[in-house]
Amino acid sequence: MMKILRFFVLSLALLAVVIVAGCNGNVVATVNGEKITSQELDKRVAEEKAGYEQQGMDFSGDQGASLLETLRKSTLEQMINNKLMLQEAKKVGTLSTDRVQEIIGAYKQLFSSEEEYQQLLDQVKMSEEDIAYILNLQDELTKDLPPVTDDEVKKYYEENKEQMAQPEQLQVRHILFFVDEGDKGYPFKHTDAEAKQLAQDVIGQLQQGKDFSQLAGEKSEDGTKVDGGLYTFSKGQAVPEFEEAAFALKDGEYTKSPVKTDYGYHVILREKLIPAQTPSFEEVKSELAEQMNEEAKQTKFSQFMEEAKNNADITNKLLDQAEDNSKQ
Hints:
Blueprint: H1 2-6, H2 8-12, E1 27-31, E2 34-37, H3 38-54, H4 61-91, H5 97-108, H6 114-124, H7 128-142, H8 150-159, H9 161-164, E3 169-178, H10 192-207, H11 212-219, E4 230-234, H12 240-248, E5 259-260, E6 264-274, H13 281-311, E7 314-316, H14 317-327
Antiparallel strand pairs: 1-2, 1-7, 3-4, 3-6, 5-6
Helix pairs in contact: 4-7, 5-7, 8-13
């Protein structure tokens, strides 16, 4: 449920990623008289290019060139949409600095960490002030929407009960030491031998009676350390080596040798197997109601933006060029 609320802005401002060759500062689009220049487009796509290349994407060859051109057009279209959204948002009224911070402060509470929030800012390429204006517009547009009724929630539950079934899950705790000699970008750097030795040292401490969750909180190098290494997963969700080792254990047992995966070396404690189950209506009623209310808000906002775009004065030179080329 938090994910639905957290990424409300993102769902309405999906950002494509592109790489383009440099232009000369020409205007590539206008939105109700506001310009988008090739320089702005170049800046956006240069950032995205770096991100894609880090993920191993290859833009070489004829196929890569075609993909880049498609992505370029998609990014400009999204920049147009974002500019239009901000124009509509600012028609509602000017937000004071204090009001911007108030809106952003409440929004940030929906994130598990400051890092996660900053990742969203990087993703949508918007400032905090821009996000505050859009959130304020969303609130104004949807504040009078009636909440869903119990009957509507019940109907949705009955129609989607099978999709809510939770498969069998295994609850474990684990301690991870990354293997990274400077080429993977992990938060900790160890050679293979160093990480394996750290894992073996932990196993030695467990054999001396140390508490697993306490050791995980002190020593593990991944995000689960804040919960004492707690991790719950279904078959197919964990890397194969981890899954195989965890399911081979009995409840209360831990691995007596470090488990190697692409991440590094793990020590795993199996806690319990959670049987497959379908939650009752009462268990999910509140969550479903909140989800349905948020979906109704998203729908209304999307409809508003679609109408605003239909009525806007927009020029897109990349789109015009593509249409001209298709006629030749």
